[in-house]
Write a structure and sequence with these properties.
heterodimer, A: about 300 residues, mainly alpha, MetI-like fold, two-stranded antiparallel sheet, 12 helices, 2 strands, B: about 425 residues, alpha/beta, D-Maltodextrin-Binding Protein, domain 2, 2 domains, 9-stranded mixed sheet, 19 helices, globular
């Protein structure tokens, strides 16, 4: 006869089973396949050949655009995650205040995050279009500018736009994570801090920040992963043009695989990306967790 | 207990992985009657009507699959219409999983042929049908003397111009590069820079077309007379430099690296662009966009003393090998039946005219010209146009390489150096 104690022992595993199976099929298995492919010869048509050692990795690193793309990816992740985190934090602080229309403001904030990235990127493409983009139209009609401005006049500016759209769609996620953290802070802590003579900055540093850190950690780690892996914004806005100068790693390896048909180096790049991501996210989490333990 | 459960879970995961690793057997229904053949077909989505025509009600209330199966008992079709954005991913994934389609409609073929995945056309295409194809089109799908694919349709590019605008400015249609520059300057002066005289698309989607327009118009091209890659020839450098100068002088749309042909066509439809190189479907496109432009076509301008050449774009139909098919002869015959049915003027004319393309077989010409007299002019263009060297194995690399070179030059690099680099890569 089963005892209650025995059942509680295996029950969690049973409930976990469907998720574990799904993770195995849709996450672990594809990762293993990509690892295997990265050491295999892959023809232009996609026929998988034999083991070639690190040849795909060597070819990937030797690609002329490799350095540019890696640097772009670094800037892309740092700027989008960094700026979104700061902006998201500030917005969450504002939304945590009591004011009329707070609920509406919170709902509006969801839109950029809830809309598909391809739609977002296409809409921004139309907004900043030189010829009949809405930004130029609005500014011309308001009399702010006398002549339409070419908002995409160089690849540096194109890249800044990509990052801008990335930030625009990422801020809401940070704001909501932080907002959840802020709402869980007991009001009496602020009262106590006020009694101790802490001002706005003092309360922010000593009460708010330590208590929303878990929420910030979650949002930052997830954002590093999402932003690094983000494909639609770059692909929809520029396809990496001109000559991969606005590409990030994920968009580039897609182009490499399906446009240039260099499938071997493309799989090697995706493994490199995966490892970088694991290292970054792991390192960040370890640092934050250690800090929490110290406290 | 814990250990047992962990072991059980691990075993289950492994089982799931093993199940995923199985190569799916060819998608033939298990209950297929003996002697019946199912052909797995992938068709590219050319426009909103493609799916309707093949699978919906777009063929006079019925569809291609229904009609085909009715007229060809014993052959079933498992036909998918796949968007151009996804088709390469889909086909490559299926090849990697050893599950290639029987019949594929796509633009490229050389990689599949070179890797021994395709059946030679003579194995399945009935002689009578084969003779019906325009020979110049068939020549584009030959590697080492073997025809590996047949054309399904074509389109041709020419220069379109806004008749009213050129009249208003008081200029003639340019035929040479020098005239093109003069006309462009006149348009800039007349409209005070409000209208782009000329359109250039050097985007990742179609920068290779720009390369063709300006190098063919200067006696150059992707390959030399012997068919060897010659992307960095003096003629090519001069041709692309001419295009870059047009951009530099402000005669074109401002962002050629990201403004696609469709952006240019939109500008033309909105009356913001006076001239551009576009395919024969442009009038339909402009009308669909609500534009009311009085337009006409002319040859693509070339350098003085050189002949401009139209660019022909052609898609193909090909058949993959399937060593697991029990009766190869019957399978080949079924593929032949598919092609015969597809190119039967009764069906084919509807297909080609539906999305405004040009035909690939002689038997369709008469009916098409009868329905739209403007086809005659385009058929003349088609007869003289050049095609991309898509039969060469390195074409994908060259295509992306010339686009990258153009785009690098747009952001300040030296076009000669960029093309030299590509040529060295190709030689190495």
């Amino acid at each position: 006869m089963q005892t209650g104690l025995n059942r509680t022992k295996w029950e969690p595993y049973l409930w976990l089973l469907p998720s574990l199976l799904l993770i195995a099929i849709f996450v672990v298995f594809p990762i293993l396949i990509v690892f295997k492919l990265s050491f295999s010869e892959i023809s232009k048509a996609g026929v998988i050949g034999g083991f070639v050692g690190f040849q795909n990795y060597v070819e990937a690193v030797k690609l002329p655009a490799f350095k540019t793309v890696m640097l772009n990816t670094l800037w892309w992740v740092l700027s989008v995650v960094g700026i979104s985190t700061v902006l998201g934090f500030v917005i969450a602080m504002v939304l945590n205040q009591k004011f009329h229309g707070r609920k509406i403001a919170r709902s509006i904030l969801v839109f950029p995050w809830a809309t598909s990235l391809v739609v977002q990127a296409s809409v921004w493409n139309y907004i900043i279009k030189y010829e009949y983009g809405s930004l130029n139209n609005v500014l011309l009609n308001l009399g702010v500018i006398k002549q339409a401005i070419n908002w995409r006049s160089s690849y540096q500016i194109e890249f800044i736009w990509e990052c801008g759209v990335g930030i625009f769609v990422t801020v809401p996620f940070v704001a909501f994570c932080v907002l959840a953290g802020l709402q869980s802070i007991d009001g009496s802590l602020y009262e106590a801090a006020t009694m101790d003579g802490a001002g706005f900055w003092g309360k922010l540093r000593n009460v708010t920040l330590p208590l929303v850190r878990p929420a910030l950690t979650v949002s930052t780690v997830l954002n590093i992963i999402y932003v690094f892996n983000s494909f639609p914004i770059v692909y929809t806005m520029t396809k990496g043009a001109p000559a991969h100068k606005t590409d990030t790693m994920i968009a580039y390896l897609y182009m490499l695989s399906f446009y240039e048909r260099k499938k071997g180096p493309a799989t090697a790049l995706s493994v490199i990306g995966f490892l970088i991501l694991c290292a970054c996210a792991g390192l960040y989490m370890m640092t934050v967790m250690r800090k929490e333990e110290e406290q | 207990m814990k250990k047992f459960l962990a072991l059980f879970l691990a075993a289950l995961m492994l089982f799931a992985l093993a199940a995923c690793g199985q190569t799916p057997a060819a998608d033939k229904p298990a209950d297929q009657p003996a002697g019946e053949i199912t052909l797995d077909v992938i068709i590219c989505e050319y426009g909103p009507n493609t799916k309707e025509w093949f699978l919906g009600k777009g063929m006079n209330g019925t569809n291609f699959v229904e009609k085909f199966e009715k007229e060809n008992p014993g052959v079933k079709l498992k036909l998918d219409v796949v968007s151009w954005n996804d088709v390469y991913t889909e086909v490559d994934t299926r090849i990697a999983n050893n599950n290639a389609p029987d019949i594929l409609n796509i633009d490229v073929f050389a990689n599949y042929a070179n890797e021994g995945l395709l059946l030679p056309v003579k194995d399945y295409c009935p002689d009578e049908l084969f003779k019906d194809f325009f020979p110049a089109f068939i020549d584009q799908s030959v590697i080492d003397g073997t025809v590996w694919a047949v054309p399904d349709l074509a389109s041709a590019r020419a220069m379109f111009y806004n008749v009213d605008m050129l009249k208003e400015v008081g200029v003639e249609v340019p035929t040479t590069w020098a005239e093109l520059e003069d006309v462009s300057q006149a348009i800039i002066d007349f409209y005070n820079g409000e209208v782009y005289p000329w359109g250039i698309d050097m985007t990742t989607d179609e920068g290779q077309a720009a390369f063709a327009y300006y190098t063919w118009g200067n006696g150059g091209g992707f390959v030399d007379k012997d068919g060897n890659w010659a992307v960095n020839s003096a003629e090519n450098v001069e041709g692309i430099q001419f295009a870059l100068n047009l951009i530099e002088k402000g005669y074109t749309n401002p962002n050629p690296a990201t403004q696609t042909r469709y952006d240019l066509q939109d500008m033309f439809a909105a009356g913001k662009m006076a001239m551009l190189i576009a395919p024969n479907q442009l009038p339909t496109y402009v009308a669909d966009k609500g534009g009311n432009i009085n337009m006409a076509t002319a040859g693509i301008p070339a350098n003085a003393g050189k002949t401009g050449s139209s660019v022909g774009v052609m898609d193909r139909v090909m058949a993959f090998k399937d060593d697991s098919a029990p009766d190869q002869a019957a399978r080949n015959e079924a593929i032949g039946k598919f092609l015969t049915f597809f190119y039967n003027p009764e069906n084919y004319v509807g297909w080609v005219s539906m999305e405004g393309f040009l035909p690939a077989v002689n038997s369709a010409v008469e009916a098409l010209v009868a329905s739209d007299p403007s086809f005659t002019a385009w058929l003349d263009v088609l007869a003289t146009c050049q095609f991309y060297p898509a039969a060469k194995a390195e074409w994908d690399q060259v295509k992306q390489g010339v686009i990258a070179a153009e785009q690098a030059a747009l952001s300040g690099a030296d076009i000669q150096a960029e093309l030299d680099k590509l040529q060295t890569e190709l030689a190495g």
